[in-house]
Amino acid sequence: MSTEQVTESVIRLARERRGIGVRELARLANVTPGAITQWEASERRGTARPQTIARALSAMGTSPESELPSKVDAVLERREDRVTLELHRAVAAKLVWKSSDVMSVVDANLEQLRTRVRGTSALADIAEWERLANGKRMGALIDRMLGSDSRSISMRQTSPFMGVLSNDERLAAIARASE
Question: What pTM, to 2 d.p., does this model score?
Answer without folding.
Answer: 0.59
